[in-house]
Write the structure tokens for this entry.
Amino acid sequence: MEEKDLVIIGGGPAGLCAAISARKKGIDVLIIDENLRPGGQLFKQIHRFFGSKEHMAGVRGFVIGEKLLKEVKELGVEVWLNSIAYGIFKDKVIGVIKDGKNILVKAKSIIISTGATENPLSFPNWTLPGVMGAGACQTMINIHRVLPGKKVLMIGSGNVGLIVSYQLLQAGAEVVGVVEIMPKIGGYLVHAAKIKRFGVPIYLSTTILEGVGKEEIEGAIICPVDENFKPIIKKKKYIEVDLICIAVGLTPLNELLYQAGCLFTYKGYLGGMVALHNENMETTVENIFVAGDCSGIEEASTAMEEGKLAGISVAEKIRGKKWEDEKDQIRKRLDDFRIGTFGEKRKLSKEEIVREYYERVKTW
Amino acid sequence: MKKKDLRIYKHPILGDLPERKKIYIYFNGKKLTAYEGEMIAAVLYANGIRRLRRTERFKEVRGIFCAIGRCTDCVMTVDGIPNIRTCITPVKEKMKIEFQEGLGKWKKKIW
């Protein structure tokens, strides 16, 4: 069995930053990632990031990805690609399928940064080719450079829905509209303004009734809703589209955390069930840490900071040293980012998670 | 480069699609042009092929849903091996890709 100081599962923004921070403190790090290249979903983010200079604001996501990969390489972090971590067993033994072979790795510490998965939305014919996640569509156009459809209807006006709509326009598709069941736009107005400038209508208080098509999507029926979200059927309308994108949020990917025996709590503003963790990102299972979207849906910018925090915390434990100042700076940057209508609620939810961690860890 | 397909050759942020080695793959016996490094499902979608398989029980046609290898909606029979996630499997020269009916059939023994 291989033995490692720190194993990071998931090499996205959180995992890469955790690896860099821990490696810089002299820790041997192994990143396990199931994809053919690390970077998680950073490489499909072609828009400029928000925040301050420390958050790398104004830099496009894929450029940040390239920077992180370069740093990881220079620091000599070991990376296993095309490797699936399928389980965490007793004493922090991780089961991995690497190159088709089963390998067991024993770690002193584990950071789980597995990210998130897109929420589906069911409506008649939602399984037909031509219905896909908005993130999936983003992967198709920005990574694979293929248009999965020419006339697109976006479901959901959160930031993902708005940004992907704009990126579809950049890729040369026609976006026939964005449908939003709430009476107001979900995402930042900056993003909404970008697509409005292109004349893309945003249908508020509207839902999708069904996708139309036999073996592939040929259209969609959309319908306004009343104040109780009930469709006003006589106002339904057919739109000709060949692609319906679903942008109705994300759910943390935390199977491994469940398997490891971590305690959970429900936080709606963070996307659902999330593992309890303390101010160092350590879960209720000692030496298992979380970072990024799998500990609550936020943004790549916060994922990177959480990763750094987790990485330094692991280094503190293994080396028996303290880097409190550095950690406080990271926590301050996280607070700085968690502002505004969305950020404030996430900040409160994160604070609750830490409080619940201490309450439940006492009695557990 | 021919532009009849759905590849995004020019992009305002990402620039021109880089030149890559051209290879050929087969979909249900039909020859398709692909480029090294492309994923199977991306090549099919670029050629307007979005029907990738039919489900076992309800005989529903499926295509790409998540594009990152999680949902398994895009599985097809590749070189005789069924249930290959085509959205994360790169193409290889002369690869034979087939529309998959149900759970597919093993045409090749790998053990």
Remarks:
- The two ends of chain A are 31 Å apart (CA to CA).
